[in-house]
Design brief:
Number of domains: 5
Strand content: 25-35%
Family: Belongs to the peptidase M14 family.
Organism: Streptomyces nodosus
CATH superfamily of the largest domain: Zn peptidases
CATH class of the largest domain: Alpha Beta
Cofactor: Zn(2+)
Structural class: alpha+beta
Largest sheet: 8 strands, mixed
Number of strands: 39
GO molecular function, one term: metallocarboxypeptidase activity
Distance between the termini: 43 Å
Strand order of the largest sheet: 15-23-25-24-26-31-27-30
Shape: globular
EC number: 3.4.17.18
């Protein structure tokens, strides 16, 4: 299908203001020195970290919070007294910000919500494991055929599986009547039906049209179960036949990166004719850390005597087997010494003439690092700002640990990232689309969104005409998790982890209590409009939540994205799916705070294409449960959210010309009782997360519709010159075009080419610019749409004259 044309330039949408300017709050005066946010300690309770609301007067307040290293969510909305943003804060961080005059309000979610999600997830995973151990049992509920209107026959089947997980797929096949071959009537995949998050049974969401009344139907399960039952005639009133059933709903719990990667690998094996796995070239660092142990509390008078040790190897490679003892020798005037006893490191502390310990933290650190045998196993460091002058206390054997809690099913080795490539023709001849999810670890809904889309494309290929067209005519690349290491850490160690797990900090920021602050924000690590180029929105602090890394594209995860875009030149469209807030955005995504210097805006034709496509894509999102993305949250990133220096959509647009969008799933939910919108957070209860995944999978399919329309677009645009104002001394005009396209024009009588002036936007959401001339002028122009179709088939690099031409006269005011 061709995306509907529009003659107007979305005047209504362009007229909507971005935000309301508010007066500044006196409490937000600039602090005397750069504020320091307290650190998050690693503990079972995760130090009470919660997702909090902060209201600032304007965007300068948002920039101030970002500069302070506050862990801001990708969420912003105008409120009566300014702008509401959300941040991940510990209790100490909350009080610190309040002390500085920030309006920190009530939490959206806290660790209680996290634990509830994990309990629900554990139950689902346990059920899956039990079900996978043996073939499931199928219980038939209904198997009937009936007629409706014009004697058209339909088939309705409902079967329940004892395996309740969403990976269980049931397939029904039926004969053509008594005595005919099984399966001669047809075969179809059944849809999993859930209600309030609970599995009910499998069915055809709508009855299937058939030609002959079957005698029996056989249902087989991907788990191995099978059952054959008679089909009876339904004696109820005839019903109007719906369109053929479209299968959806393939996820039933939040999944970690190991699960989602195994899922797409399994899909590629199941559908080898229309899919394959692409192994990305750069393996991640892995779900692993060095093992550590700390001595001393690091606070108050104990600061000077606090130090820690870090294993040279990762915990999973032997660091977790080490221990260290600080031993009181029980003798007078004993010297400080260090020794290795197998896997135990023993520090014999020095004493004075009375037998009191005299070794300071600094002396112990130096002794450990100076000992050849010990220093091959560990490195000792003073704690943060400690001067090491405090005397240490004896301590029993203390094991070193990497602190990681994921089960053994999660490998500690570097992760092999994979894309599933879906398409009938995967040779580069078709328009490519790149769908990728979970650049930020804590956004648990996004990977299941990508998984759902892959499932729908493959399982509907043989039975849904539109899906077959998409798979036949496009080359689709899906990466369900761009941040596997960080996502494993988020699910099992610290649910609010945003970044990957790499620690680039020096010793003063590498003690065990800093562990939840390490990592690189992958969506700030790209090379266009980056923090390294002076753009706003990326931190230079190794513990900052938007830390851009030590250099552009320093991370294997981001290099994998760039590799894919460069390797497969046919990729023309991309979608980066994040959460939360319900946004639909596109480049530019970054600016420099000084003068708000924005990356070059897309040209008029491309901007209108973004808007035009959004109509179809967001309508697809809305079709699942009625969710409407607000107009104020649709548009370029810098206009509707904030500056995100070094993000991936900018990378692909400016370096590769890829039309890239950003989803933020999880729109605010409106409460009719309170007449207020409520934010959903990064990890809503799965019943809500499931709905978000379903509706935004709809949106990803909508993007594929747009891409296919682009691929099939051979229709030329049509443009007109329209006079908008005239006086005795001047005439003002502009151009209109019947679809998103760029217009190239000349005013000096020369032949228009691709190097001629291009019609620009009058301003953000203000429509096309207006051109004023002060003498009679011959205007010559042509238009070209984004698919490369030239108006009137004009060849601007040739010698033809089949461009548009019109005289604009001055002096006529009628």
């Amino acid at each position: 299908m061709r995306i509907p044309r529009r003659a107007r330039h979305y005047a209504l949408l362009l007229a909507i203001p971005l935000a309301v300017t508010m007066s500044a709050l006196p409490a937000l005066g600039a602090p005397a020195s750069q504020p320091v946010t307290p650190d998050r300690d690693s503990s079972t309770a995760q130090n009470g970290v919660a997702l909090m609301r902060i209201v600032v007067p304007d965007k300068s307040g948002v920039d101030k919070l970002d500069a302070m290293g506050v862990d801001l969510a990708e969420y912003s909305k105008p409120v009566d007294n300014g702008i509401e943003v959300h941040a991940v804060l510990s209790p100490d961080e909350t009080e610190n910000l309040r002390d500085q005059g920030f309006d920190v309000q009530n939490p959206i979610s806290d660790q209680g919500d996290y634990h509830a999600n994990m309990r629900a997830r554990s139950q689902a995973v346990a059920i899956e494991a039990a079900d996978a151990a043996e073939a499931d049992t199928l219980t038939p509920l209904r198997a009937e055929w009936f007629t409706s209107l014009n004697d058209q026959r339909f088939l309705s089947v409902e079967v329940k599986s004892s395996a309740t997980d969403a990976q269980t797929v049931l397939t029904a096949s039926w004969d053509s009547g008594k005595g005919t071959e099984p399966g001669s009537g047809g075969t179809a995949t059944m849809s999993r039906f859930t209600d309030a998050g609970e599995y009910m049974y499998h069915r055809f969401s709508a009855p299937l049209a058939i030609t002959e009344a079957p005698a029996t139907v056989t249902v087989t399960s991907s788990r191995g179960g099978t059952i054959t039952v008679p089909v009876t005639k339904w004696l109820g009133d005839p019903v109007k036949a719906p369109s053929p059933n479209y299968v959806s709903d393939f996820v039933d719990h939040y999944m970690d990166p190991t699960e989602v990667t195994d899922r797409v690998v399994g899909l590629a094996k199941e559908f080898p004719k229309i899919s394959e796995i692409v192994n990305l070239p750069y393996k991640t660092n892995g779900y692993r850390r060095q093992a550590q142990a700390q001595f001393g509390t690091g606070s108050g008078t104990a600061l000077a005597s606090t130090f820690y040790v870090t294993s040279k190897t990762y915990g999973s490679k032997g660091g977790n087997d080490l221990s260290i003892t600080l031993k009181n020798p029980g003798a007078n005037s004993a010297p400080l010494s260090v020794a290795v006893n197998g896997k135990e490191l023993v520090v014999n502390l020095a004493t004075d003439a009375s037998g009191a310990i005299t070794s300071t933290a600094g002396q112990v650190v130096n002794a450990i690092n100076a000992n050849a045998a010990v220093s091959t196993l560990v490195t000792a460091s003073l704690y943060r700002t400690s001067n090491g002058t405090g005397v240490v206390a004896a301590a029993p054997a203390t094991p070193l640990t990497d602190g990681l809690k994921a089960p053994a099913s999660v490998s500690r080795e570097p992760f092999q990232m994979k894309a599933i490539r879906i398409g009938k023709h995967r040779d580069g001849s078709k328009t490519g689309v790149f769908l990728y999810c979970q650049e930020h670890a804590r956004e648990w809904v996004t990977p299941i969104t990508c998984v759902e889309t892959a499932e729908r494309l493959l399982r509907n290929y043989a039975r849904d005409a539109n899906t077959k067209k998409l798979v036949n005519d496009l080359d689709i690349f899906i990466i369900p998790t761009m941040n596997p290491d960080g996502a494993h850490y988020s699910m099992y160690d610290y649910n609010m982890q945003r970044k990957n797990m790499v620690n680039y900090c020096a010793a003063d920021n590498s003690d065990p209590a800093r562990r939840n602050s390490w990592g690189v924000d992958l969506n700030r690590n790209f090379s266009v409009g980056s923090g390294f180029d002076g753009y706003t929105g990326g931190s230079t602090s190794c513990t900052g939540e938007t830390y851009s890394g030590p250099s552009e594209l320093s991370e294997p995860e981001t290099r994998n994205e760039v590799w894919l875009a460069n390797k497969f030149k046919n990729i023309k469209f991309a979608m980066n799916t994040h959460s939360y807030g319900g946004y639909f955005m596109w480049p530019p995504g970054a600016y420099k705070s000084a003068g708000r210097e924005v990356l070059p805006r897309t040209d008029m034709g491309t901007e209108n294409y973004f808007w035009n496509a959004s109509t179809h894509i967001l309508s697809a999102v809305q079709d699942w449960r009625g969710t409407g993305i607000q107009p104020g949250r649709t548009g370029p990133v810098v206009d509707v959210l904030y500056s995100a220096a070094g993000n991936s959509a900018d990378e692909f647009w400016y370096n590769n010309g890829i039309i890239g969008w950003d989803f933020e799933v999880g729109t605010d939910l409106y409460d009719p009782a309170t007449k207020k919108y409520n934010a959903v957070g990064f990890q809503p209860p799965f019943s809500e997360g499931h709905e978000e995944a379903m509706e935004f999978s709809n949106g990803q399919i909508g993007i594929l519709d747009v891409a296919r329309a682009y691929d099939k677009d051979h229709q030329q645009p049509t443009s007109k010159l329209a006079v908008t104002d005239a006086s005795a001394t001047s005439t003002t005009f502009t151009f209109t075009v019947d679809e998103p396209a760029n217009i190239y024009y000349t005013l000096d009588g020369s032949r228009p080419t691709m190097n001629s002036p291009k019609l620009a936007a009058a301003g953000m959401r203000e429509g096309a610019e207006k051109i004023t001339v002060h003498k009679n002028t011959v205007v010559q122009w042509f238009s070209m749409d984004l698919a490369g179709n030239y108006e009137r088939n004009y060849k601007p690099d040739g010698n033809g004259k089949n461009y548009n031409k019109q005289n604009v006269t001055v002096g006529r005011t009628n």
